[in-house]
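Supplementary notes for students who missed Thursday's class. We covered one full example, reproduced here. Read the sequence, then the structure, then the short commentary at the end.
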Amino acid sequence: LGVAPLRACTQEGKGRALLAEETSSSRREETSSSRREETSSSRRQRSTTTMADSGPPWCTIESDPGVFTELIHKIGVKDVQVEELWSLDEAAFHNLHPVYGLIFLFKLRPEDVRDDRAALTDYEPSELFFARQVITNACATQAILSILLNIPDMDLGDELSSFKEFTSHFDAEMRGLAISNSEVIRDVHNSFARPEPFVKGSEVEATGDDDVYHFISYLPVGDAAYELDGLQRGPIKLGDIKPGGSWIDVARPVIEERIRTYQGSEIRFCLMAVVGNRLRRLEREVAGKRAYLRALCIKL
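Structure (token representation):
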């Protein structure tokens, strides 16, 4: 797996508008009532169209585990960190448990957007957080949020806990809009903007000649493993987790197959694991052993 800290994707590869804003000139013979109706409809449509584009633009950020870890901490989640993986072998996950999810970066192709796998549309939103991507350059942060907001019993901090409760019954499109309009999430994301000398943030858009890269998430929810991709209509269930097995065993062949489809034409991939905070885990282990030694000394 190679590192690909390149330009993040835009919806549909080059950016997808939520709704197309239609304008037409009114005929002179139209009645005043029909004109008022058309004007009202046009205003409602413009309001919906610009909802995802309100506020400052979202900048591209580096696909770096240190950046992602700091981004998670700035949002308010402290017991989580991100580690880069160089393979999918079991040995790569040694000492990383618990693994809450995987973030995969790959070069986006037209066939990736037109995924023919069945996406779930009848799932319970309160049990699985999935959001459509409705804003450009947000796929990295959205992949992170897809994992964090699906970790059971995780201390998400005040801001993300409130966001999760607020969007608990939203559909995927509305959740995407909620992410794009969250000033806190956007400001944290933009605080890690990649340096682009002499280029304004709003001008960092993918052109027809640019390679476009995209972040997606793999994670367990309940007794199954899922792929969450904001470009798709819904979550993609990869399979059930065998009793006593690992959800990574379900996700591993899917990721490997995706890499194989490039047939050597692309070597720039990046795989990162969202895991428990290793320092805090070691601190708890040390504290536990100290308590055991103190109890043992008292008995002696």
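Commentary. Confidence is low (pLDDT under 50) at residues 1-51, 198-204. The first strand starts at residue 80 and ends at 85. If anything here is unclear, bring it to office hours.
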